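Hi W.,

Here's what went into the run:
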Amino acid sequence: MTAALEVSDLVVEIRRHHHRFRAVDHVSLRVDRGGALGIVGESGCGKSITLRAIMGLLPPAGRVLAGTVMVQGEPASADSPRAERARRRQLAMVFQDALSALNPVMTVGDQIAEAPLRVLGLSRRSAHARALELLGVVGIPDPRRRYGAYPHELSGGLRQRVMIAIALSSDPTILLCDEPTTALDVTIQAQILELLSDLRDSNGLTIVFVTHDLGVVGQVCDDLAVMYAGRIVETGPVAEVLAAPRHPYTAGLLASALDVDSHASTLVTIPGSIPDPMRLPPGCAFNPRCPFAQPDCLVSPVPLRAVAAGRASACLHHDRLLQVPHG
Amino acid sequence: MADVLLEVENLGVSFRADGGRTLRAVDNVAFRLAAGEVLGLVGESGCGKSTVARCVAGLLAPTNGVVRLDGSDLGVQRTAEQRCAVQMVFQDPYSSLNPRMTVRQMLRELLSVHDLVPRAAREDRCRELMSLVGLPVGALDGLPVQFSGGQRQRIAIGRALAVEPRVIVADEPVSSLDVSVQATILRLFEDLRARLGLTMIFISHNLAVVRHLSNRVAVMYLGRIVEQGQRDALFADPRHPYTRALLAAAPRLHQGRRPRPEVTGEPPSPVDIPAGCRFHPRCPLAQDICRREDPVPQQVHGDSADTVCCHFGADPG
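Here's what came out:
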C-alpha cells in the first residue's frame, strides 16, 4: 500500500544571527491512507518545523537541505510550479492560534469560500453553498448566521472550527495539525479532538497531529513519533509507546506527566534542560540528561532502529528500559 | 476549620460592558483557607478565576464583598504591610519581569523599599532567595532575557517570596511552560510549601496539576464557585455536572478514543448569564427547576466546608 505521506531523511537548517543550526535532522515519517500520526515533543524540538517543511511553508530563515516528501506516492516538489501546487493541494494545515491565522477583515464564510472559488474554480454561488456546508461539517451551530461573522466575534473554539473548515475547503487528503487545541479549554479541546476523529472516520482524511501533550495524542492518533533536539527518538503505536517506552526521553516525559486520576506522592523530573540547538552535545543529544548514558552514547548521533514489531528507538541502551517498571 | 488565615466572603466584581450592560465577572464567591493550605482554583477561560486572584492580591477593587487576612479586612487601600502579606506570581514570566533590571536590582529594590532587611544583610538575603528557588548565585547578575521560561518563573517566585508573604496567589504559573519544565516548577512549589509553610491560591485550568498541589479545590463556572471541597473527596466524588465534565475532558495518557463528551457547546457570555442555574443550558441533567431557580450552595461529603451549587448534587437522604 502506498503511504499517504512519506517523509525521508528530511534535514532543515535554520539561520539565526549569522549562525546556522539543524532544526530538523534526518527525520523520516510514514502515514498510511486514513491513518493518524502524532508528533510529540517540547518547544524547539523541531516538530512544527517538520510540519511546515512538509507543507512548504518554512519561514524565510529555514531551508530544506536534504530529504524528500512524497504525497500519495509522488514527490511533493515537482519540476513545474503547477505540478507542485497540485501536489501540495492534497495537504492542508490547521494552526494553533486561530485568531492570528484568520483574516480579521474578512467574514469567516468568505474565507472558507475562497479556496473553492479560486483554487477549485467553483462558481460564486456554489462556493457559497460549499462554505455553508463546511460550517455545518465542522459543527458550527446556525451556519447561515455565522457565515457573515468576523473572526473576533467568535469564541476560540468556534474560530478553531472555522480554521478546520478552511483547511477542508480545498478538499485535501491530508490534514496537518499544529497544536490545534493547545490554546483551548479542556471541554472545547475534547470537542475539537472529537471533530478531528470524526473527519478521519467519515472522510478518510489522513492526519498528522503535532502536540506537546502526550495526553491528547491517543484520542486522535494510532501512531506516535517522539522528537528531541531535531530528531525522532522513538516511534510506535501510541498505546504501546505510552505503556512501555523504549527511549529514556519518552520515559522521562511520561514520568513527569501528572495524572488526573490519581495523586502521585512524588513528582519525577528529567534532570537538566533542553540543549541549545546551536551547541548540541556530542553523540546522542539526550546523553547529558539520561540515566542510562554510557561512554558509547557520546560517540555519534544514534539513528532510529527497529526494536520490536512496529517499534523503533534511537537509544543504544533501550533494553535497559525493559527492566524498570512504568506507571 | 481551625485557624482560618484567609477568608473571602460574598466577593463580587462587575464591569461595565458595551451598551451600558453589566458584566458580572465574579458573583458571590466565598472560601476560607487555613494556614499552610493550598486552594486550587480551576475553571475555563473567562470563568473569573483570575479576577478572584486579583481581588485577593489587592490589584483590583471588588464591587462588593470582603477579603480578610487573619480576621482583619484587607481593603483596597492596603498598607505596605498588607500588600507584602499577599503576593502574586503571574502566568507569563516573559512579561511580568522588568526587562531592564538585573535580578539583583529587582530584589534589592524590594528589600530596600519595604525595609525588610538591614542594608548590610541585603546581599545575603538575595543569595538566600536564589537558593530557595533553586537558581545559582550567579543568576543575580542576569537580565530576564538571559533566562529560559522556567528560570524566569523561578525568579518571579523569588521576587514574591522576598517580601515574606503569608499568602501567595499563583495565576497559571506553569501553563506556559513545557511539560518537563512544568514538573520542576511544581516541585519547587511543593518544596516551598513544605519548608516555609506557604499558604497558597493556585489557579490553573489543568486538573491534574491542581490535584497534585492542592488540599482544597474550588471549581468556578461563569463567575461562581459551583463546587468546592477537600481535594480527595472532590476528585473521588464530584457532585456538580460541570466538575464531572471537566474531569471527563481532562487529557489522559492511557486512554484512546473516549465516549462523546456529555457537555456540549460553550459557556455563555458573562454579560448574559442564564436565568436559574447558570450551567443549565449545557447541563445533561437539567430539569425545569434548573431553569427557574438559582441553586444555593449545599453542604456535601458531610463536611461543613464542602459545598456544591446544584439542585441534584446534595448528599442523598
